Write the structure tokens for this entry.
Amino acid sequence: MAHTVRVGISVLRRPDVMIIFLSEGMSSAHADEMIKGLNDFGVTAHRTVFGDRQVVVTSIGKPGSRPDDETLQAGIRSAYHVERILVVDTSCQLANRQVRPEGSVVRAGTFSVGGGHFGVIAGPCTVETERQTCETALAVRDAGATALRGGAFKPRTSPYAFQGLKREGLKILAKARRLSGLAIVTEAMSPEEVKLVEEYGDVIQIGARNVQNYRLLEAAGRARKPVLLKRGFSTTIEEWIMSAEYILAGGNDRVILCERGIRTFEDYTRFTLPVAVIPALREMPHLPVVVDPSHAAGRADFVLPLAAASVAAGADGLLVEVHPDPKSALCDGRQSLTFEEFKRMMRQCTDVRACIG
Amino acid sequence: MAHTVRVGISVLRRPDVMIIFLSEGMSSAHADEMIKGLNDFGVTAHRTVFGDRQVVVTSIGKPGSRPDDETLQAGIRSAYHVERILVVDTSCQLANRQVRPEGSVVRAGTFSVGGGHFGVIAGPCTVETERQTCETALAVRDAGATALRGGAFKPRTSPYAFQGLKREGLKILAKARRLSGLAIVTEAMSPEEVKLVEEYGDVIQIGARNVQNYRLLEAAGRARKPVLLKRGFSTTIEEWIMSAEYILAGGNDRVILCERGIRTFEDYTRFTLPVAVIPALREMPHLPVVVDPSHAAGRADFVLPLAAASVAAGADGLLVEVHPDPKSALCDGRQSLTFEEFKRMMRQCTDVRACIG
Amino acid sequence: MAHTVRVGISVLRRPDVMIIFLSEGMSSAHADEMIKGLNDFGVTAHRTVFGDRQVVVTSIGKPGSRPDDETLQAGIRSAYHVERILVVDTSCQLANRQVRPEGSVVRAGTFSVGGGHFGVIAGPCTVETERQTCETALAVRDAGATALRGGAFKPRTSPYAFQGLKREGLKILAKARRLSGLAIVTEAMSPEEVKLVEEYGDVIQIGARNVQNYRLLEAAGRARKPVLLKRGFSTTIEEWIMSAEYILAGGNDRVILCERGIRTFEDYTRFTLPVAVIPALREMPHLPVVVDPSHAAGRADFVLPLAAASVAAGADGLLVEVHPDPKSALCDGRQSLTFEEFKRMMRQCTDVRACIG
Amino acid sequence: MAHTVRVGISVLRRPDVMIIFLSEGMSSAHADEMIKGLNDFGVTAHRTVFGDRQVVVTSIGKPGSRPDDETLQAGIRSAYHVERILVVDTSCQLANRQVRPEGSVVRAGTFSVGGGHFGVIAGPCTVETERQTCETALAVRDAGATALRGGAFKPRTSPYAFQGLKREGLKILAKARRLSGLAIVTEAMSPEEVKLVEEYGDVIQIGARNVQNYRLLEAAGRARKPVLLKRGFSTTIEEWIMSAEYILAGGNDRVILCERGIRTFEDYTRFTLPVAVIPALREMPHLPVVVDPSHAAGRADFVLPLAAASVAAGADGLLVEVHPDPKSALCDGRQSLTFEEFKRMMRQCTDVRACIG
């Protein structure tokens, strides 16, 4: 194998990487052994987990020193128990649609999204009281939502603004789950909060402002719960997918992408919803795509048309702010739907979804 | 009247204008007489036509010198045959939804748009040959389009690029109309071309780059055919409506607004389609709103999702590029649909439209 | 020649064009003769004037059919009186820096800009009265301005806003020129107005909103006066240069580019001044680059720092709004400098300019 | 006091806060006592440190419940040792220029910036080797830099890209400081890294992607070293100042703002440098403003003009990437200056700075 591999490596030109999925039942020790073998041929590599499989990814090196040829692949297949080998462009590896051509389905209790499953996450911007949270949970569940959102740790522009109920808020969310049965989606802003959300919640949300907070992404990669990763105000699609890649490379293959509007010169809405992101994400990564029309619009009366547009463009789900009494909300009341408005939105979106492939 | 009017004027503070619709049957001579009367009270005004009514609009002056009070209105009503008087904010007068709360319907032969009518304009970017144009006309008509588009005068970034067949192209479009029965929508780039398009076509298109070409807008205001006014790459909504106002103020009340994407930092599509513009335009002007998903996307495979999203958000119509053989198109082939793709798009959009109010 | 040329053509791959400068004294008849000769070899071409030379530009065709090889050049040189031949990339031909590596100097009376000459155009947004205009002309001249600006035809967002004094305004500008000696820079919005500005003024300004008004650019290309071409709110640099190319291709080689700020998400200034445009334009076209800090800033107190920054980055000149009494200005008063502020700005900019290469 | 205070509070309308600076020598116990006193009147407040003074800031409440009237101020002055009381708009409190009208000077060893001091931070993107780092330190010091930059923890878009030498890199930087005498500016991406940078470096850099990573900002607020806070790609000025406010509210009053370009539609530079941010920041917060022309430009040949423009617009300092051999740099080589280019830039910027107030 040695000889042919070296030949193979020497003719390489493109900056590709090889993703090697080990066979079912292989352990991390097997993967470590493979890495040692690759190292012997001057190929650096690292190990991660994707789904329930051990994966070895060859590291980026200078063109000319990386293995993507058939000889190397043949050598690996003959020496190890390998399920499949993918050679992909470096900008998007584990998130690459080639890794899971059928698209990922992410599941958390009542909530399934992607691969034909439509997920609707609804609830207040902020957990304010047990009553407000539980009432909303039941109302959105009855209208068709499949998960409850609500912030316990709130990223606020001002250090003097209300920062959330923190652990107390998580406990309220856990109660609302027991009551309603809905999975809980809630934000974490630090590795410590990731652990708390893992303990009390079902899906860890990473907010727009933390989309390139790499230490947080690494912590999310180590978590055993799915992650909903919002796009930043001006993150490019490629940067966003690479942030998802941080989570996948950390060993957590359950990532949901959530578009929430970008910053442009337009000022009649809070952000601009670039609806073309939905087909664009469909062709690149295999991850489910959810849209948050509430933050994009910044006003309740635009949430329904933006939600319907997102569904028509092929979104896998929605994330919507709903409050029993938007006028009295501690935060984002202007963009929150009432229970009645949410019901109407659900009816319309369900109808639109039935029309599209 | 004189005394009270002066009193009325003297207390004014807000920079408003008054729009006076004369009664049915009143002529321009009546309107001129009213203007003279207003002038006598120090109020400047000008005359235009809206639909089939003479309209007098009081001009902008310094705050404190403009008439919006009830005394002045009463004086006007007693002295002239007046149907109704509106006092509106200056930034949007004849385009203001208060002028036509039910929304405008713009009609041109087979083509109706607004007020519940859905208009679909389809055809090639550029008129290349009679055969290409007529074939496309029949195909899009059979798939449900209600108007044919096709450029005879082409605004091209480079002076060396193909500039269109000009008058020859208009003649081909006129033939395609005779053959298919479809109304013709085609672009004019100068007052002279406005006249030619009036002669051969049915709807005068003003392109994104000319959205603030005021001499052209004035010419369109004098035209006797409806105008489709595209948004500029970075025109704000208010600027766009004010450009429509130029046409309305010129006496042409049949204006269609067409969103075609704005320029942002996103680079995976040619432009960014800000779908929230649809509900935004719904609440401000009374003009129909059409979306051009072809230029927004810049690639054929994104046209269907963007079209469906636009319809779901409430658009009154679509403007889509279709070509018998996109690969051989002289211009914009990358974003043109084949006949088959257009048929599929129409089916999906019709279904989505049936779902929404 | 025929044989070798055909061989030459057949091996072409890149989409280039050839710019052929005829020798001094050659007439348009000579150029026409050359075009005929090229046509005989299947090469299309058109004729224009650059400076005082006849120029023949080979038209764009399909790759493989265009002449850029040495054989063709040799053939042309042997058959005609040719000064030099350039083969350039199509996206920027006559504006290409290779055409005039030393950079263009544009001159109009007192005003010279480019190639080491620093031009300062100052004056009111709008010509309001003879007194206001003449007073400003003398004040800016004494502070070091080399041209007077002032709008007679005003492009206004609202059709109801003051549209300028039109021909009356041009006459006032002509008087201010006689009084002050300063060259006059003033805007034209249509081919007709181009003629009027040619008659009364010295430099024809084309405003941001007309940067892609191709009929206007064509008219400016036929004019015998220099043209100052402002950038549009969101025109890319390439689009802007191509708009300049329209003017050059029309036979007018005296074009000045004027940056006036682009539209971004920033809202603390009217527009965003992208100062890097100055070195960017330095390396691509040969045209002088002037900056308008007044429109970019939208507020008088930011004009000085933006002007100084532009000079430090290498701008060839400035275009600044100055008014005897900004508070009473009919238009743009908020961003106009007083005479005193303009003097201070000139002192600082002169000092900064002395520091840079 | 009680009675008059309640009256005072009841008439409040504006959402202001009161910043109370205790007299020299007052301890945190004194501040806590004042907070208890305020609480007794229904006013919530929190304590921090600004410079060497204890500060009490009244928290945000509903309009009508907050104290800004003279009666309350008089009561506080009579009951406590107070140096001064400021009532400011909530969007910017401790960062507000009213707090330090003369502007802040931030000092760290050789490095002083703000209040007339010009600070130049230069060095490689990434610490690669001891030799590369030390050589650069000496070269930039000799050319006039007052601090050394160099990344040990690198925020990289891709999880597979080189992530920096980490603690090893910090040790190399500490060696370079011993050798050159220059203060060290280096980035931290997590609260743990803040502690490491405090240990080895002099100024803690927070990168563009972490500008709204509030847990990191809180950690920086607890640090005893100055903080350089970069602007995010699309952070508004207000959001950016509020992020600085997080650090100030945490008790660290030594914050430097660093503009590094924003994301717009322009694509000929990596980011767009909005030079007007310099005067804008001058009028709002009291913090020094430094510009990073290297990241804004993304190419070495534009760094000099952007640096000169920034200085001309009034920047307090520069942050520039310099590398002994840009072509072989592990990261950002395209935008790094050679030693020679940096020397030239320093000469020009020094000259320009001498021209401006």
